[in-house]
Amino acid sequence: MSRFGLPDGIQACLFDLDGVLTRTASVHRAAWRDVFDPLLVSAGQPPFTDEDYARFVDGKPRRDGVRDFLAARGITPAEGSPGDSPDADTVSGIASRKNVLLLKRLEEHGVQVFPGSVAYLRVVHGSGIPTAVVTSSANGAEVIRAAGIEHLIDQRVDGVVADREGLSGKPAPDTFLEAARRLGVEPAEAAVFEDARAGVAAGRAGGFGLVVGVDRGGQADALRESGADVVVDDLSQLLDSS
């Protein structure tokens, strides 16, 4: 490993947003719980758990998260269409409902960052290594702006970009591959930083030069099993290793 805990040859860094740079994973989890629990109660199912979030929802596009989690509980709502009302109990309506609740929580509580990880981002970007945020969130631009890190991000591939370009969400590698393309590097020349199992799996599937798992909730083994080369509690640890 060379500077910043990166192998020689790494020329770009691709960061997930929620849970890696910003403290919004807990806000996402709470919004999902508010959406899912009434549906689960009506189906006679136990409540949504943190493990459910990690296994079925974290890091995925909203509609995929709705579909995958409810299918695991034997619930199969109609797909609906992207324009469905947040009141509709379709996959699209439930996904929209979650976003309404998320935006309300973000408005009430704001966006906090992980200081150590933002310090790492600042050092990497300041050294001339290009950076990108790769997030399944359709609110990526707003969260980045609210977090005050716009000037440290060279490219952004979020849920809006993925929908527009027809990119499959994590665990498919498409969004990371698009970010690498926009930065002008090959996957083997880029490092991926992820806290979600689906995101780590995407980094591994894309053939990236380094996949760093960020363990925010006691899932270090699961991140390694998903394909992480290195697991840290915070990106500041990589500065300590330089």
From TrEMBL:
Belongs to the HAD-like hydrolase superfamily. CbbY/CbbZ/Gph/YieH family. Its cofactor is Mg(2+). This is Beta-phosphoglucomutase. One of its GO terms (molecular function) is beta-phosphoglucomutase activity. It catalyses: beta-D-glucose 1-phosphate = beta-D-glucose 6-phosphate. InterPro entries: B-phosphoglucomutase_hydrolase, Beta-PGM-like, HAD-like_sf, HAD-SF_hydro_IA, HAD_sf, PGP-like_dom2. Keywords: Carbohydrate metabolism, Isomerase, Magnesium, Metal-binding, Phosphoprotein. It is an enzyme of class 5 (isomerase). It comes from Nocardioides gansuensis. Its EC number is 5.4.2.6.
